[in-house]
Design a protein that fits this description.
Elements: E1 10-16, E2 20-21, H1 31-43, E3 52-56, H2 67-74, E4 83-85, H3 92-106, E5 111-118, E6 126-127, H4 129-140, H5 144-153, E7 161-162, H6 175-185, H7 190-209, H8 235-239, E8 263-272, H9 274-277, E9 286-296, H10 308-318, E10 328-331, H11 336-346, H12 349-356, H13 376-379, H14 386-399, E11 406-413, E12 417-424
Parallel strand pairs: 3-4, 3-5, 10-11
Antiparallel strand pairs: 1-8, 1-9, 2-8, 5-8, 6-7, 9-12, 11-12
Helix pairs in contact: 1-2, 3-14, 4-5, 6-11, 7-11, 10-11
């Protein structure tokens, strides 16, 4: 995508924390404390100014509204740099990159830091709304008589806590329950899901062994690599796990082994013009962001996590590309079942015509080019950080390919949302 004056917009690989299990090594770090080391480490790489920053988190904290600004100030960086917070469920730090690209293309800015964080170990509970209103009125009471009057108004039913859950607010159902529906609709088998999960772990372990992640991850609290990739994962071991979201129908297929785990972690990414790239170390992997697409679906009838399969055909058609023209596919793995649904849907001509409004002449989906260094099932999924993680991973992998090679990076999100980026080296 051209920026201001027709110049290119680039993505350059950023840094991230290791991704670890909830209540694990980072249990004492909230979103601020997880993000600051990443932001500081990235800022130290820059020779020149950072023009602005965008950061986000899906799980909110009642102590602050503009998370990005709080992180920036705690990082002791230049307070004159504008910073703002964004959120789009699991696409949060990917859409932050899209927002930064738009700003770079519209004004005289050259370099943006974007990213996201999730501290699932430090999720804050809140008071129910009626209890919050009651407490506010109690604090506002000026006399003993007024306080007694307010105290008498409290009903037992008002005493409620708001406990954040990994559920869709509108449907009241979890991501896993929705994905079980998708798996049944698309006739995805347990074997297909477990094979995808096994491959994700194998590729993640192989990438760790060859040092692929070494310059993408900073050590934190004595941890220097992701905790989830399992060297001993096998189809036999995965097959022993019981379904966790559909335990009663006898048709449940989604298990802890083929789902992304609850994760603590933070990740960053650079978005730049040619001028901005010159401020980064010469060995920082970088690729051009050609274009992007966002999509949304009806969560009651079209599958909660199916939006990317609407976005991908539209994006490819806009550039006259087929699936085989893409050398690298990075597909977010919320669940192996969701990935399998996407692969099937992308090859279904009637589905693509009906949902994307595009004649499907894209050919066979090259699954062998997908997630060569593992995906979220094996690496972990701190919701708002996944976009920066997957984009940095794609940038590094693509930058090592032949000039002109292309990548598609795709993320699904709660609420029926999806984002897709087209990259080229």
């Amino acid at each position: 995508m051209p920026g201001n004056g027709g110049q290119a917009i680039w993505l350059a690989a950023g840094l991230r924390t290791p991704f670890v299990a909830v209540d694990g090594p980072f249990a004492d770090r909230d979103s601020l404390a997880l993000s600051v080391p990443v932001v500081q480490a990235m800022a130290q790489e820059v020779n020149g100014p950072i023009d602005f920053a965008v950061w986000g988190s899906v799980v909110v904290n009642l102590a602050y509204a503009n998370l990005a600004r709080e992180i920036w100030l705690d990082s002791k960086l230049d307070p004159h740099v504008p910073t703002f917070t964004t959120v789009m469920q699991c696409s949060t730090s990917m859409v932050a990159a899209f927002e930064a690209a738009g700003i770079l293309g519209a004004r005289r800015a050259a370099l943006a830091m974007v990213g996201g964080v999730e501290s699932m170990s430090r999720v804050e509970f809140g008071l129910g709304m009626n209890l919050s209103v009651w407490l506010r009125r109690l604090f506002q009471a000026h006399s003993t008589r007024d306080r007694l009057r307010v105290l008498r108004r409290l009903r037992p039913s008002d005493i409620r806590l708001y406990v954040p859950e990994v559920k869709n607010r509108v449907t009241g159902r979890s991501m896993g329950e929705h994905t079980e529906d998708m798996a049944k609709d698309w006739k995805i088998t347990r074997q297909e899901e477990d094979e995808l999960a096994r491959d994700s772990h194998r590729r993640s372990v192989a990438a760790q062994d060859r040092g692929f992640f070494n310059d993408l991850i900073i050590a934190l609290d004595g941890v220097d690599k992701d905790h989830f990739p399992r060297r001993d994962t096998s189809l036999d071991k995965l097959a022993r796990l019981k379904p966790v979201f559909d335990r009663t129908s006898g048709r449940g297929t989604i298990t802890a082994g083929n789902s992304s785990p609850l994760t603590d972690g933070a990740a960053g990414l650079w978005v730049a013009t040619d001028e901005g790239l010159a401020r980064l170390p010469a060995n920082t992997p970088r690729v051009r962001m050609v274009d992007f697409e966002m999509a949304a679906v009806d969560i009651f009838h079209e599958g909660l996590l199916m939006a990317p399969v609407t976005a991908i055909p539209r994006l490819l058609a806009r550039h006259g590309l087929k699936y085989d023209d893409i050398a690298l596919w990075e597909i977010h793995e919320a669940f192996s079942a969701q990935v399998a649904c996407h692969i099937k849907a992308l090859q279904d001509k009637e589905f693509v015509r009906a949902k994307a409004g595009i004649e499907n002449t894209f050919g066979r989906f090259p699954v062998e080019r997908m997630n060569p260094n593992g995906g979220s099932v094996a690496l972990g999924h701190p919701f708002a950080a996944t976009g920066a993680r997957i984009l940095s991973q794609a940038v590094k992998e693509l930058a090592a390919m032949a000039p002109g090679s292309r990548a598609i990076v795709s993320i699904c999100g709660d609420g029926g949302l999806g984002t897709v980026a087209l990259l080229e080296c």
